[in-house]
Amino acid sequence: MKPHKTRAGGIKDAQREAAQFRRRALLGFILIALCLAALAARFWNLQIARHAEFAARSDNNRISVRSIPPTRGLIYDRNGVLLAENVAAFRLEVVPEQVKDMAAMLAALAHVVALSDDDIERFDALRKSKRAFDSIPLRLKLSEDEIARFSTQRWRFPGVDVVPYLTRAYPRGTDFAHVVGYVGRIDAADAANLDADEYAGTTQIGKTGIERRYENRLHGTPGYEQVEVNVDKRVIGKPISRVAPTPGKNLYLTVDARLQHAAMEALAGRPGAVVAIDPRDGEVLALASAPSFDPNLFVNGIGRADYAALTSNPDKPLLDRAIAGGFTPGSTVKPYLGLGGLELGLRRPQDTVLSTGEFFIPGQTRGYRDDVRGGQGLVNLRQAIARSVNTYFYSLALDMGIDRFSAWMGNFGFGQPTGIDLPGEASGVLPSRAWKRAKMNQAFYPGETVIAGIGQGYWVITPIQLANALATLADGGVRHVPHLLRATQDGLNAPRAPVPRAGAARNFIRDPANWDAVRQGMIDVVNGGGTAQGLGDGFPYVIAGKTGTAERYSRTGEEWQNIMSAPISRHEVLFEAFTPADAPRIAVVVALKEGHSGAYDAAPIARHILDEWLKDDDTGSRSP
């Protein structure tokens, strides 16, 4: 046989071609084996080595983790009267990453559910501080009609849903607006200072009052649940797992709802404040400020018209006058000054001063007037307090000097916050050399010391300061920090846990006889022909008190005028009282921005408070 010729005329080498084919086949087999090995390795990596990772990724596409906000703690008065509660409501929420065109969606949604400019502004502000997959509230407290309308159009708004929630409500309304305060929507400023995990799913935070002061106790700890979702992120079936949130603590306050209502009722909207304290331990029994407002307006976002009405009101209903309202104390400071004269050895109880109607600083021609034209003759401390004789205290303040004056009055807490557990407390002003130098860079003059002795001049006090000073005096010189929180509770069936208190300040009154001399003078104010004579008629306990009428401007150079004939806009009027006088259990301060006199306007309000307190006192619940 002849060798086969190729097309080019060459001779085919079958043996060489066979060898070449075997090499190529082997190479192909190796490549296929390598590919199969790589595929097997990749399969092992995906299905075994990284199984947990990819299973988690799969679950993340299928399972969504939702935060469960905690239930906010409730707030009660000392007797268990509910002051702040949680009620069921519905809101619209939006998940931004599921909305392709936010502006178009909001415009379309506004035709289904009413959306105000305020709603949209707050929503936009929250979006900046939240993650794209977070559900953000758009409109709170939907009506049943709005829920029904949206339900029929739900398909048009992916990423928008109606969500049930608990919202805050204040059944006692205006009575406790300043004490309990209110919650409001978490805004951008709030969000910047909050732990996002702790407030996940929460839309409200305490803004004022107890709600703000004890936010950390009321809020609680959020929980979470795992739910299965479809491709549209809608929940399928029941939750897979759930970790329950920890509810906030319930709070029991020291205030008495009935006493608080009596105070607001007696104020009747007149700008002013009432404070009642138990002098034995500093528990605040009533803390009323008028005029007030409805805190429920703020819970789900107050409208612009309502807010403008509150802020433009000249009587300032948003101002808590009990802790931040500035008053000139007038003659209410006289008992404290009189006690200082005895304690510092400048006066004895029996020492007398001649009141002629005017007091003159030696070497000066300017006269400082008494309240009674022509004066009241010779008076001792007891008579000076009972009749509110200015001359006695002009003379005492001048002898004491401004340095000893301010140091002594500082013992009662004037010129400094009391430390009450509410935000926004003012410091007031206690006249002193250091204060004036820092404020005006001027010296303190004898004439300013003289008028400071009757609670005029640079004096500024808050009602809570005066009430704390009165409670300190009533308890014989022992100063307690006034407080509102009495106990906490982990749940409705849990026992109340009393809140521990810091120890009281030392007793700075050295001689009990000095305290008794001042107390007798204050008893005479009410029962011995004093400026509030008759106030204690029919009351089973002896009341000790002191009136105060502070002029808004000086009468120097004017003809003498009885305070009752002057317009009420001329005076701030005050009254302070404690009872029983021999073992005080309640101290009350009333301060009004306008009135004829402390005796005429403020004292009857204090008596109304004491009468209401007496109803509960008969039960023995206030006994030592």
Please provide a written account of the structure.
The strands form 6 sheets. Strands 2, 3, 4, 5, 10, 17 and 18 form a 7-stranded mixed beta sheet that branches. Strands 12-11-21-20-19 form a 5-stranded antiparallel beta sheet, sandwiched between helices. The protein has a 3-stranded antiparallel beta sheet with strand order 1-8-9. It has 624 residues and is of the alpha+beta class. Helix 10 packs antiparallel against helix 21 (598-617). The chain is built from 21 helices and 21 strands. The protein starts with 13 loop residues before the first helix and ends in a 7-residue tail after the last helix. The chain has 2 domains: 69-253, Penicillin-binding protein 2a (Domain 2), CATH 3.90.1310; 257-482 and 507-617, DD-peptidase/beta-lactamase superfamily (Beta-lactamase). 36% of the residues lie in helices and 19% in strands. Residues 619-624 have low confidence and may be disordered. It is elongated, with a radius of gyration of 38 Å.
Task: Provide the fold topology.
Elements (H helix, E strand, L loop, with lengths): L13 H36 L1 H12 E6 L6 E2 L5 E13 L7 H8 L7 H13 L6 E4 L4 H10 L6 E10 L7 H4 L2 E3 L2 H5 L11 E3 L2 H5 L1 H5 L3 E7 L5 E9 L6 E4 L3 H11 L4 E7 L4 E8 L5 H4 L4 H8 L9 H4 L9 H10 L9 E3 L2 E3 L6 E3 L7 E3 L1 H7 L2 H21 L22 H8 L5 H7 L10 H12 L10 E5 L6 E3 L13 H16 L16 E8 L19 E9 L6 E7 L5 H20 L7
Parallel strand pairs: 2-10
Antiparallel strand pairs: 1-8, 2-3, 3-4, 3-5, 6-7, 8-9, 10-17, 11-12, 11-21, 13-16, 14-15, 17-18, 19-20, 20-21
Helix pairs in contact: 10-21, 14-16, 14-20, 15-20, 16-18
